[in-house]
Give the backbone structure.
Amino acid sequence: MKQNEFVLIKGTDYEEMTRKLLEEIDLAGMIGDRGKRIGIKPNLVSDSPADEGATTHPEIVSGLLSYLQEHGFSDLLVMEGSWVGSSTMNVMRVNGLDRVVRKYNVPFCDLQKDRTVIRETKGFSMEICETALSVDYLISLPVLKGHMQTRVTCALKNMKGLISNSEKRKFHRMGLHKPIAALNTVLRADLFLVDHICGDPDCEDGGNPEVRDVIFVCRDPVLCDAFACRELGYSVNQVEYIGLAEKYGVGSADLSKAMFRWIGEGETEDAERDHRTEALRAYIDEDSACSACYGMLMEALLVLDREGLLEWLPGKISIGQGFRGKTGEIGFGQCTGGFRKSLQGCPPTKEEAVRFLTELCV
Ligand code: SF4
């Protein structure tokens, strides 16, 4: 599986979908040696069932454990430390993960009680759980969802469950962004199996789930979180820790270089979307556009396409940093502020983009 690749599946049998994804990417081949110790880190932030949009669906863990055992891996360990104020073991019971680990006879480590070691990185001194550092292959199972302080939480922030409670408190005192980015330079999962089933788009603690019924895998946590931003309608610039992690060399936030591959029923849907997206490029004049900005314009063009308005667009839409200080007819984003008609925003929101383009057509 390539570093810039996303493999996605849509449906409602989450356990079976997980197994299909893992077969598709040949996870067993990626891990290699059957003697490796494999750590599995779900997101069990608080005592809330998975269908509330805060915690990883236990069916995904079940699909992963059955896949790994069937492929000859026996040294497996599920581990998590819930947020300060919740007992991990209680969260596990509410989530239903306790039944899953019992079924597969796999140990669970409550990281709130684990020993820690100090790691120095990017000017921080961090207490990291010893067990998290002891595994040979780490699989992270974040929930793609919103967050009250950082706006978005997914791959990068899921690593915060692998530090001590006192370190978690320290992260919050430091405003989360810088320490989260730094943590990912010393603790990095090998694979991200992301629960995009019904994450709450606003709050990490759930309560207002938005059903998508998608599970996906990827390898780059920065790219994963850039995609999470797009899914939740934010630009990468609005979530500071993503850009910082990219600067620290953890991964790339450039979604324009990402490859998306749907399997199963989503395949046809995705192929159709790709075909439409390709056709829509004819309406865009691009020069060094940020991927979030380009993505917003593309999303808005897809809406116009669905509503049959595209033929009324008066001309190509210019977008990108290459248009700064220049003049022209129609521009998208504050870089095209000198154009006769320009939508401000850096980047504009999808709502603003749809309104702007629709007004151009009437
Ligand atoms: S307006 Fe310009 S700088 Fe801002 S997101 Fe768009 S392309 Fe990037």
